[in-house]
Amino acid sequence: HTSVFDKIIVCSGSNHVPHVPQVEGDHLFEGDSCHSSQYRSAKPFQGKKVLLVGTGESGSDIAYSISKVAKSLQILTRKGPGAVIVRRKHGKVSDIDTTRIYHGLPKTFMKCEGLGIPLWQKLYVWIRSLYNNEEDDALDVAIANVKFTKYHWMSRYGTKSENFIRAVTEHGATYKETNILEMGAKSVKMGNGSAYECDAIVWCSGFSTNFSFLPSEFRKLQYRNDLWKKTFHPTFGTSIAFVGFARPNVGSIPPIAELQARFTALALAERVSLPLSDEMESVMKIDREYEEWLFPWDYERVQSLCSYMETLMDWSRLLGCDIDLARLVRNPSIAGRVIFGPLIPAQFRLFGPGSDFAGSMEALTLADSIPFVQKQFLFSLMLAIGTLSNFGLADPPIGLFLS
Question: For position 121, what pLDDT does the model report?
């Protein structure tokens, strides 16, 4: 059966086909081998010597689960686990830290070249530690005791799970940062010269995208290189749109995807217009260069990677749902939750097309916010940067009405 459509919106996500790297001698391996997408429980790995390749959230969680029952477990990554973000801090989910007041700091101020951490960031970490409970302190010690490359959260994709660390400290798993050179019948040879005898391998090595259902010109599409805002192709305009293919290094995909979907709906209804092709190409070049600077370790491998704050702010401006500060200051409680609370979709339903001011205000009151001392520190820092930006001494803050 064939159907003809005027417009196509692709929402199939970027994780289509399990990716398993080709390794010399992989056909010789006699043990069990599976991709993380096939993993269902740790039971098949009971009493076995297991090699787990890769981390990410899935890899971290699978490592912890297998470490409880395996005879031994070795966790292997090439460049480290990304920026490790614990799931809970101070008894609350860590997502509450994705605030405007924090993520609105200009990246040129926040980012250190290489693996360094800015002095202000160290101070901020210390301030956060003042609220630590016993579980937080124990986890901080565990993280310090496991030798892995510790990246600034802004420079790499976030691994929002610390479970691979628990696998090491609680159940004796080992962790190494190297590559696989060669596989044999019952062992794997590493790039650092070591070898590991194993009965099973779990590949937590990500996915490849499959656009085989699209015309040939889209089969090898690269979101960063070929799509304006990772959504529209300059050549094809509103004929085809890709929604849900912008993956933030921290934060989550759905809030961005919702804004993409809202804009796409307006564009298809001809209530907003796309930029001209040349303008789109120019913006794509700027965005690409910025992301290559921001994510030096991952930009080639993870084409969908983007900065959470900037992406949300870009779409809010395009949609016309920017925060109206004049209206918010009449309700200081809601203004405080917008500035110090997590970046949730309700913030972008306060104003503009498709807004629901009352419903959004209710949703914002349900969201938690960061502790008071953190608010004080970040607000002072933001005011200082806002002042410096007025004299051309710093880039302006993002999304905080100070520029």
Answer: 78
